[in-house]
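Recall the central idea of this unit: under ordinary conditions, the amino acid sequence of a chain determines the structure it adopts. In this exercise we apply that idea directly, starting from the sequence alone.
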Amino acid sequence: LVATAAAGARRATRGRGQQAAKLRGSLVAARGGSTSVDTSGPLPFVTLKRGNDEATVYPYGACVTSYKTDGTEWLAVRPDAKLDGSKPISGGLPFCWPQFGPGAIQQHGFARN
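Accordingly, the structure predicted from this sequence is:
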């Protein structure tokens, strides 16, 4: 669900796929939840809510920066993390594939770009 929302928001913020993003949002809402996209800051993010659960996903790096249940935060983002697009977000749950760390291809793979 989170990966689907991030992919939809990533396409929507590129000026393409607004219909796909709306469809994905409808799927979340149809399952008893809601989704919203905030583009007011330097980096857009998606907020997913269902019952007492809430997640925040940044399409930049496909990074889940927050997951709360009943108000309890379960993820940590570094206090000095840059949320302005100048560097990858440090913390949360980044999508790293096909590798994590340095290697034969760019660090943390290419899927999160």
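The longest helix spans residues 18-30.
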